[in-house]
Amino acid sequence: MNSISDPPFDEAYKSLFDKLISNSEEINGVKNEVMVECELPLINLKVLEESDPVAREECKSNIARASQQWGFFQVINHGISSEILKRLMCEQEKLFRKPFHNKTKEDEFFNFSAGSYRWGSPTATCITQLSWSEAFHIPLTDILYSNSSPNSLSSTMEQFATTVSTLGQTLADILAEKMGHKSTFFKKNCLSNTCYLRLNRYPPCPIASEIHGLMPHTDSDFLTILYQDQVGGLQLVKDMKWIAVKPNPDALIINIGDLFQAWSNGVYKSVEHRVVTNPKVERFSMAYFLCPSNDTVIESCIEPSVYRKFSFQEYKKQVRDDVQMLGSKIGLPRFLTYDATA
């Protein structure tokens, strides 16, 4: 029985559940495979403050290497206090406890832009395309430049957004530097009015073995910085296999997005990942997305380029069109040059 705070998944996707029951071949076995749990490469960012230039360069090289080999890594001593993270997680839980009908009126109850609250998968045509989750996808401008009177949620989000933005710029600059490009590209194009914070909740799922919390995808940004609780559920593809990421309470998870893969000409990898559901326990996470403005042109910093030039707006439109038509994202393969696909 759903609580008044849970989205009405059963009601909204009844036809998909009915189809699942009547057609046993549709069962996707999300959790039926044997899953290896691993720890992502762990990088101590405190080393970047050391006076030893060799140690600093080694730290930067480790960041670049993990971005090439894994597309994911985790960082400790990242500059965001555990107090802020714990407080934000607490405020986030309280936010998602609100009645569902209040959450759908986010501009009225929470002073977020209309459309910030999202749940499920509106375009899903089969159970494999359904994401059993709800989220507030909030422009940083709603957090940093709100005209409303501050409350505990907004002030905590503002503290987090300010510090995580600095971390995002630092990591992007390091990755650009290790490609031989000490540029101001990210500081010029990835501003607070183009980046986002996303608060996620994955409710307990009665048929967790059949439904994703978040279906397999890559991120359509430069970098994603994630903080998650200790429930677990994040999985990624490594060496053609799905592996489970072991939660680390002291670390933030960083993953490369599509735009960085295109910008680096495929050197840094935007890796497919997903979230699996849990039959008994809800899961919370929060993510920061380092994004450029819509008119920013993404082009490779190395020639010959694997990908053709495209604007961020063009990329997002192609993703939306594909999801609408096919139920899932295609992403970067749509933007390969002719030579690369010959």
From TrEMBL:
EC numbers on record: 1.14.11.13
Keyword line: Dioxygenase, Iron, Metal-binding, Oxidoreductase
Highest taxon above the source species: Eukaryota
Pfam families with a match to the protein in the record: 2OG-FeII_Oxy (PF03171), DIOX_N (PF14226)
PROSITE patterns for this protein: FE2OG_OXY (PS51471)
InterPro entries: DIOX_N, IPNS-like_FE2OG_OXY, IPNS-like_sf, Iron_ascorbate_oxido_reductase, Oxoglu/Fe-dep_dioxygenase_dom
Catalytic activity: gibberellin A1 + 2-oxoglutarate + O2 = gibberellin A8 + succinate + CO2
Residue span, Fe2OG dioxygenase domain: 193-292
GO molecular function: gibberellin 2-beta-dioxygenase activity; metal ion binding
A biological-process GO annotation: gibberellin metabolic process
Family: Belongs to the iron/ascorbate-dependent oxidoreductase family. GA2OX subfamily.
Listed name of the protein: gibberellin 2beta-dioxygenase
Phylogenetic lineage: Eukaryota, Viridiplantae, Streptophyta, Embryophyta, Tracheophyta
